[in-house]
Amino acid sequence: MRRIRWVGAALLGLVLAGCSGAGGTPSGETSRTTVSVSGAPSASRSPVTGSDWHAWTASYPAADGRCEATAHQVVCRTGSGGFVGRSRSTGEVTWSVPPAGRGKDAELVVDSATERAVTSSGATLSAANLRTGKAAWTHRLTYGSTVPVVLKVADGTVFVLETPTAGAKIITLAAFRMSDGEALWHRSVAADPYGDMAAFGGRVYTTDYTKVTARDARTGATVATTPQGVECSYLISGGKYLVCTGSPISAGDTFPPLQRLDPDTLRPLRTAEDTGDKPERGVISSDGVLVLYEDSAEDPGGGAWNAYDLVHPKRLWSYNTTTEEAELAGDRFVTFTPVNDAPVRGRVITIDLHAGPKAKGAAAPRMSAPYSQSRYGEGPRLVVPGGDPDHLVVQAATHRSLRSITLP
C-alpha cells in the first residue's frame, strides 16, 4: 500500500511562486500554466497533433488494470490475460480480447514496432494484435509454476522472468517472438525477479544482487558479467544506458552507491554520487539523464526526484514531491505536483530534464489545470506514449477513470 509522504514543498513554492489556486485555473484540458521569468503564471494553449483529437474522460471496469499507450491507442489489461483497446483521439473502445487464462496478472508491455501487447495470467502468456484488435497468440509457461514477475520487450522479442517457487534462487528466463509467440530459448538463471531486468542493444540483463549478467538476446548465452566487488541490487535502463542502484524493496538503511555500467563489458563507469537515500524508481532519457526517486529508509515521508547526468557525471537538480509516478516525454520529465502544496496540488507538471525546476523562460516548469484524476488519493499514474507526444492520459485507480490531457 502506497505510503502518504508528508514533506514541506519549499522548493516548489519558490519555483512556482505566484501560481493561482485550483479555483483560478482553467479546467479545460487544452489549458496549461507556465511560469514566466518573473515567477507569475501565464495561461497558454497547447498545440495538438492531429485534428481528430479532443479532450476526453472515460471510466473503466474493475477488471481492467494497468494501461499503456502507443501513438494511436490506449491499451489496458482487463484481467486473466485479456485486453481492451481505446482510441487515443476519442477514448472510445475500439476492440477487446477476452481473457486467456486464470491467475494473478503480471505486467503489461506494448510494442508499437511489432503491433503487439503482451501480458500474462497465472502460467499463460498472451498477446493481442494492435492492428486487428484480435488475439495474436497464447503460450503456456512450462518452465515455471507461478507468475512471471518481469516482462521486457526489445527488437521483436519479449523476455519473461519467471518465479517457480517462493524464495527460489534459480528461476527461468525465457524469450518469445512477439509476432507469433514462438519460444526462442530459455535458461535457468541465478536472478532476483525483484531486481528487475533490462533489454536493449541485442542483450538482456539480469541481477542476483551480487552480480549482473548479460546474455545474447538471440540465444540466451552469457556474454558478460560484472567484475568482483560491483554490488548491484536493482537495474534501471533507458536509451543505451544501464545503471545499478539499491533495491527499492530493501529493509535496510544503507544501499549500494549509484553505479553506471558499460553495457558491453559490464565494467563500472564513472558515476555521479547519489544522495545515499533509498532509491525507489528511476527513468533514463536517451541523452543520458537519470531521474531517480529517492527517499529516507529510516524516516520515510516525502521523497525527491533527483536528476543525474550520466555522461558528464554530476547531479543536476532535485524536486521534492510525494509521488513515485513519473515518465519522460521528449526532453521533459513528467510527474504530479505534491499533495501537501495546496495551491498547486492535483496537477501534472513537466520539468526540463537539464534545466530543472528552477529554470526560467522557455525551459521553466509547466503545469496543467487541476483534475480529479490527478489527486493523490486517486493513486494516479501517467500513460505516456514514446517519443515527444502532445498529449497523455492520466489513469486514476481509486475511482477507475482515464483522462486525456494535453502535455503541459
UniProtKB/TrEMBL annotation:
The UniProt record lists the keyword Signal: yes
Keyword Signal: yes
Superkingdom, natural source: Bacteria
Signal sequence coordinates: 1-22
Polar residues: bias regions: 27-49
Pfam families, per database record: PQQ_2
Region (Disordered): 22-51
Keywords tagged on the record: Signal
InterPro entries: PQQ_rpt_dom (IPR002372), Quinoprotein_ADH-like_sf (IPR011047), WD40/YVTN_repeat-like_dom_sf (IPR015943)
Residues in Pyrrolo-quinoline quinone repeat domain copies: 56-195
Protein name (database record): PQQ-binding-like beta-propeller repeat protein
Organism: Streptomyces prunicolor
